[in-house]
Amino acid sequence: MVLRLVVEYWSEHGPFKGTRPYTDVNGPAVQPKNVQMAPPSHCRTVNGGAPRNGAIAVETPATSESSRLLDADEFRRLGHQVVDFIADYYAGLGDYPVHPGVAPGFLRRQLPADAPCRPEPEAFAAALRDVRDLLLPGMTHWQSPRHFAHFPASSSTVGALGGALAAGINVVPFTWAASPAATELEMRLREHIRSHVRMAAAFEAMVRADARFEVAAPRRFALVCFRLLLSPEKELAGGEKAANELNRRLLEEVNAASSGPYMSSAMVGGVYMLRCAIGSTLTEERHVREAWNVVQERATSILRKRG
């Protein structure tokens, strides 16, 4: 439905091969121009084979009827492949580790030194395979229901397709004049989002219910900042430095848990704290409870070892 809507919009307004003519505001129907884009550097001609006329050489493809920025039929065909790819990713998202266990340079070693130049239709299928086999294993999966780090990164079926729709129409709502409808819609949407913080409030309540912890800063929207407390005797002996080291250790233990949550940290006024940002649309109440259970278990283990 979304793909069809975008294609129909572009068929009316874009430079497509094989689409019906569109009408210029000042005259009769006109055909779209043949717009070209440059290929990788090793699939090149110079100035499309045309005379240079004293101009600096610019690498462009030779003139070709098929070289177009956008093509309605191709967009429809490849778009379905991308939708299937993303749907499969969402279906198996819970099976990925939230944070990858890779080292710097892992991807660079797997990529060719020169950009590949594959003919269609193999090129797009090969690119999707590279995304699946090379990129996904090395990514932090922000949409994972166990992702509680940094800040919310929510998505949904309607949201993802809405993003495709906005990209297809090329909405640029940085001012009201640039896109009046999009700007006013964004303002109303923000009002709706502010009211949805129920799971973050539930996590905050669980932290407050455990006397070993404290909420280290007032909750803001979906973000809960908390920390594990030292006993009064140990805090007196080690001060804030000891408390900070304790919570650094706790964060390491929480994030190292197999199939556990992934959180981040903050340092505010010299106080180290854990950050739990609840916002993925795939996160359910059970994920929040499981995340808190992991925090409690790791805290119990650390405190027991410290005596």
From TrEMBL:
Cofactor(s) recorded in Swiss-Prot or TrEMBL: pyridoxal 5'-phosphate
Signal peptide: none
GO MF: pyridoxal phosphate binding; tyrosine decarboxylase activity
A Gene Ontology biological process term: carboxylic acid metabolic process
Keywords of the record: Decarboxylase, Lyase, Pyridoxal phosphate
One CC-aspect GO term: cytoplasm
One Pfam family, short name: Pyridoxal_deC
PANTHER family (alphabetical): GROUP II PYRIDOXAL-5-PHOSPHATE DECARBOXYLASE, TYROSINE DECARBOXYLASE
Protein name: Tyrosine decarboxylase
Source organism of this protein record: Oryza brachyantha (malo sina)
